[in-house]
Specification:
It is built from 13 helices and 19 strands. The protein has a domain at 2-78 and 97-178 and 268-344: 3-Layer(bba) Sandwich (FAD/NAD(P)-binding domain). The chain is an alpha+beta fold and 390 residues long. The structure holds 8-demethyl-8-dimethylamino-flavin-adenine-dinucleotide (RFL). 8-demethyl-8-dimethylamino-flavin-adenine-dinucleotide is lined by residues 10-16, 33-36, 41, 46-49, 104, 127-128, 157-159, 162-163, 186, 265, 284-286, 292, 295-299, 301.
């Protein structure tokens, strides 16, 4: 028997859950199919920095209670290099926007509870294996068996390696992809933040980053070779290398604690254009993966979920498909602005490879770019506008 829904959504990450909540708010019938268990999905620690538009999306659609209660205001970042340290208080620059730090796993937990409260259907441990965008039908595996589900509309929110993106017909879509050739060892330490601001450290050994997550947990990043084994980095080595790259001799020690998560994340970007085909639409990482260098991925996912949620509501409650037809046209320019900024951040934070014949020149240019960011108000306004906005 085929499960049917007006809107069938694959994936219960930020994109699928915000979309499901918006549609349920308008009484639209939805079914979400999710590969993981509820416990797994609610424990997946990833993003934390939500920009002003994301806070607005959540608040305006009645999804912001946790964010308002536990989110932390962040409006300053710092850059460390051989030339010392400078801070940018970005709430006083550009459009005056700030971040709210709220761990993605908390957001996902809130969104699941609210979605179920709104009467949404959600099936965990269901892996979608086949996708037909023309009919809005998917095939899936569940507890050793198989099944099918069909939606009047089908939305792929199953991340960058999901089944829906692969089902977009190759001849009708352009896939833009870039491997930036850089990887980060993404770490979560059970330790309070070491500094009041997000800190980007630029060093000949490679980039290091510090980002608050909560009073008890802090995210750090260390640039590593793309094929690095995270197990090659025991806690001691991590803290020693963070100390070198963060120049703790000059700026004071880090607040150390056990490293509770370590994984290598390759900095990659890819964009599917258009983001829709037949009855199927893609949102979030499924449509546009962005490298984490500027902390944009979850923010783009929320932006797309809102645009699509409002467009599907128009189509289903007012028989008006104009916004739905314009979905890719509406989202893609914003996605590319974020990709451009993220790419700019990558070039700012990472130096040339040791074997690069132009290494000295590249290092000098990067240093000049950092000086410009330190000294030029126009450059700082550009940074602030792009860092928080979409
Ligand atoms: P998600 O969160 O990957 O959710 C996709 C869901 O789909 C399920 N799924 C399937 N379900 C059924 N059948 C299948 N075949 C399926 N295949 C997959 C998965 O189990 C999953 O539950 O995608 P979504 O919703 O598009 O959300 C995207 C964000 O998660 C992502 O962009 C951000 O986490 C990126 N990101 C950050 N973004 C920010 O805006 N700010 C940040 O500070 C930030 N920090 C980060 C990040 C990503 C990171 N990593 C690990 C890549 C830090 C890191 C380290």
């Amino acid at each position: 028997m085929t499960d049917r829904a007006t809107v069938l959504i694959v994936g219960a990450g930020p994109a699928g859950l915000v979309l499901g909540n918006l549609l349920r708010d308008k009484g639209i019938d939805t079914l979400i199919l999710e590969r993981g268990s509820r416990a797994q999905v609610q424990a997946r620690a990833r993003a934390g920095f939500l920009g002003a538009n994301s806070a607005r999306v959540l608040t305006e659609h009645g999804l912001g209670a946790g964010l308002a209660r536990d989110g932390q205001f962040h409006d300053t970042c710092a850059f460390r290099s051989e030339d010392g340290q400078f801070e940018l208080k970005y709430s006083a620059l550009g459009r005056g926007e700030a971040h709210t730090v709220y761990p993605q796993q908390n957001l996902v937990t809130d969104l699941i509870a609210e979605y179920l409260d709104r009467g949404g259907r959600l099936r965990f441990d269901v892996t979608v294996t086949d996708v037909d965008p023309g009919t809005g039908t998917v095939g899936f595996r569940h507890q050793g068996g198989t099944g099918t589900a069909q939606g009047q509309f089908l939305v792929g929110c199953d991340g960058s390696n999901g089944a829906t993106r692969t089902a977009m017909p190759a001849a009708l879509v352009t896939r833009y992809a870039r491997d930036h050739g850089v990887a980060w060892l993404a770490l979560l330490a059970e330790a309070p933040p070491s500094m009041p601001a997000v800190t980007y450290a630029i060093h000949d050994n490679g980039f290091a980053g510090h980002m608050a997550r909560s009073a008890e947990v802090t995210r750090y990043y260390l640039q590593v070779p793309p094929d690095e084994d995270p197990e090659a980095w025991p806690d001691e080595r991590i803290w020693a290398e963070l100390g070198v790259r963060m120049r703790t001799e000059a700026f004071g020690p880090l607040r150390e604690g056990p490293v509770i998560d370590r994984r290598v994340v390759r900095l990659r970007s890819n964009v599917v254009d258009p983001m829709q085909h037949g009855r199927m639409f893609l949102a979030g990482d499924a449509a546009s993966l962005i490298s984490p260098s500027a902390a944009k991925g979850a923010n783009l996912a929320l932006m797309q979920a809102e645009v699509l949620g409002l467009a599907l509501t128009d189509a289903l409650t007012r028989d008006d498909e104009r916004a739905l037809h314009a979905y890719s046209r509406t989202c893609l320019p914003r996605i590319w602005r974020a990709q451009e900024f993220s790419h700019w951040m990558i070039t700012l934070l990472h130096g040339p490879d040791a074997g690069d014949p132009d290494r000295d020149f590249e290092r000098a240019v990067r240093r000049a770019r950092l000086h410009s960011l330190r000294d030029s108000r126009a450059h700082q306004d550009f940074f602030a506008e792009n860092y928080v906005g979409i």
